[in-house]
Design goal:
Length: 624
């Protein structure tokens, strides 16, 4: 059996100085990085400016308008996803304020998402309310989530353990598939791109009477590129193929009761290199199934009952390795609204199982969560407490308190504190590197925010400090059976930083940008955490021109380190991308992108290649 050792972590800093927070300065710094030959990374963001009346559910698991939020949330809609031309969920998230990614090669290979600098396993991920996670590696397998089936993404920055329980130490990413609306809306899309990439998708959504539905299927293939930059690796092209589908069906029994079923699946086969001659393959399977019953018992009281099931399977060939995580969830949520007050109470049970020979273990968590929200005039208050009882290590309590004050028209100040935790994975505890003595990783977070919004223009700044205790790391040999080393609660970390984000309409041009100044570090050594930069930012602009929507975007980031000792340095970078879209005929839309236009060479992880200049052209038929 292949031995799995912990992946190295990397960190970095950037050419940007902390005082340079304007969009113009960010653009100038990115241009300077291009002139100096700095290595580039990723793609910048193309997020629209959402309306303050838009409703989100991720912050408290209840619908809230953006104008009432005291949490730090970004919304990504389907139009943004389609225009991005991205091949994976992580590529879209990399354009969101506060997020960096790392990937060991091309799409389909191991991917990490660092939300506010936190470990990838510290972000809780849900698809239509279905939790996905790997009890082997810890955290969601980002490379397994099919972008073609996603209609909307909500990103919550900051711990949310008092709402979601284990995992949400850095934040929450909530993914939604399409919900059918009145009428019938079919679509068909095709696309071609660099590295002999092809995409085909089709689906239909609609509603008639009491029934609404949405179905979609997609197939994507690419010959890829050589994933490794070392001379000893196999020089073959490491391509991938992915087949995904989703279904969402709702039944409105009457004005007060609704039933809904959701399903998302993906089957991916991708290449990677560990041998100089073998064609190494990753085989991943993901499914997420949810059943929901929503009931409005009175004008004040409503409930939601949800049963969920997800499966994450990972296999490698020809080197034999197989691991499978099964998650089952049960949720009974209650909401009582009375004037400006909202009371919530939830009972939740989570069941986790890991099969990773010789491991076949399971555990459960039972939780009670209570929440209180108040919104009136200029004031918003949100308080949450939760207690989780784990079958392995016992009970764990979390809490959060947040306050928002609209001190002037269009202006809002916020402050919050909260605690969160993540239970050790079943692999952490029961593999040959594990021990039953491991405790949950826990965190304490505090943050302050300031926001301004008017029309299509907005600005926000959020300062945060998140301290983690009992951080699980792979260390020296000890109480576990392996002589190579053991997992242990021996580390402490701090994720501290400031996030600036804004959008501004200048005539017919819409500007967007963000800048993160952060210091994710190991408190014991003072070293930067692996694969995270001290500073990174984005800048984008688009406009309408002769029937076209055209735009350009930049993402800049600083140097980072490829190891915990901070001895392996990765340089800073900037990447410029161009995109355009137009309606070419009735019901037909054309999208074109050119990413990494300067064809800069860069690495997200040491000795792992990135795709270079990439072009994409797509056409979609979607009758109005």
């Amino acid at each position: 059996m292949k031995i799995r050792t912990p992946r190295a972590r990397i960190a970095a800093s950037l050419c940007l100085r902390p005082a340079l927070v304007s969009l113009a300065v960010l653009g100038a710094c990115a241009a300077q990085a291009q002139q100096n030959g700095s290595t580039p990374i990723l793609i910048a963001q193309n997020l629209r400016a959402p309306s303050m009346a838009e409703t989100v559910v991720t912050a408290t698991r209840t619908p809230q308008p953006l104008s009432d939020l005291v949490a730090d949330v970004t919304v990504i809609d389907r139009e943004t996803i389609e225009t991005s031309g991205a091949t994976g969920l992580a590529d879209v998230l990399a354009r969101v304020p506060g997020i960096e990614i790392s990937r060991n090669g091309g799409p389909g290979t191991t991917t990490s998402v660092f939300l506010r600098g936190a470990e990838s396993r510290f972000t809780a991920v849900y698809i239509d309310g279905v939790r996905i996670d790997s009890q082997s590696t810890g955290g969601a397998a980002w490379e397994s989530v099919p972008l073609a089936q996603i209609d909307r993404i909500e990103v919550l920055r900051g711990p949310a353990g008092a709402v979601y329980g284990s995992d949400a130490m850095g934040g929450v990413v909530q993914i939604f598939t399409t919900r059918g609306e009145q009428g019938v809306a079919p679509y068909v899309g095709v696309g071609i791109g660099s590295h002999r990439t092809t995409k085909v998708e089709a689906g239909v959504s609609g509603a008639s009477g009491a029934i609404d539905y949405a179905f979609g299927i997609a197939r994507e293939e690419s010959k890829g590129f050589n994933a490794r930059t070392t001379a000893t690796a196999n020089p073959d092209r490491d391509g991938y193929d992915s087949t995904s589908a989703n279904a969402r069906v709702g039944l409105q029994l009457n004005a007060a009761h609704r039933l809904e079923a959701t399903l998302l699946t993906n089957d991916m086969d991708s290449g990677y290199d560990t041998s100089p001659t073998a064609d190494d393959r990753n085989l991943r399977k993901l499914h997420a199934l949810g059943l929901n019953w929503q009931a409005q018992w009175s004008t004040a009281y409503k409930t939601r009952v949800q049963v969920t099931d997800s499966r994450d399977q990972y296999e490698t060939r020809p080197s034999p390795y197989l691991t499978e995580t099964r998650l089952r969830g049960y949720l009974f949520q209650n909401e009582w609204r009375q004037g400006p007050h909202l009371l919530t109470a939830a009972l939740e049970r989570r069941e986790d199982r890991l099969e990773n020979a010789p491991i076949d273990r399971k555990r459960s968590q039972d939780a009670l969560a209570l929440g209180y929200g108040y919104t009136a005039g200029a004031h918003t208050l949100q308080a949450n407490v939760r207690h989780d009882s784990d079958s392995e290590f016992g009970g764990k309590g979390t809490g959060s308190l947040a306050y928002g004050f609209s001190f002037a028209p269009q202006w809002r100040a916020t402050a919050s504190v909260g605690t969160a935790f993540r239970a050790p994975t079943l692999y952490h505890r029961f593999s040959e590197y594990g021990t039953g003595r491991l405790n949950p990783e826990s965190s304490r977070n505090a943050e302050l925010g300031l926001r301004w919004a008017q029309g299509s223009s907005s600005f926000s700044v959020t300062a945060y400090r998140n301290r983690v205790e009992d951080l699980i790391v792979f260390g020296a040999a000890g109480p576990c059976p392996s002589s190579l080393g053991c997992y242990a609660n021996v580390a402490r970390a701090e994720y501290r930083g400031v996030t600036f984000a804004g959008s501004y309409r200048l005539g017919s041009v819409q500007l967007r940008g963000s800048l993160d100044l952060q210091n994710p570090r190991d408190l014991a050594t003072g070293k930067m955490l692996a694969r995270r930069a001290k500073r990174h930012g984005t800048l984008g602009a688009d406009t309408q021109l002769a029937g076209w929507t055209v735009g350009a975007e930049v993402q800049a980031s600083g140097r980072r380190f490829d190891n915990a000792a901070n001895t392996l340095n990765r340089g800073g970078y900037a990447l410029v991308n161009l995109y355009a879209s137009t309606r070419i005929a009735r019901d037909f839309t054309l999208v074109a992108r050119l990413d990494n236009a300067a064809d800069k060479q860069y690495e997200l992880a040491r000795t792992y290649a990135t795709p270079g200049r990439v072009a994409y052209l797509g056409v979609k038929w979607a009758p109005n």
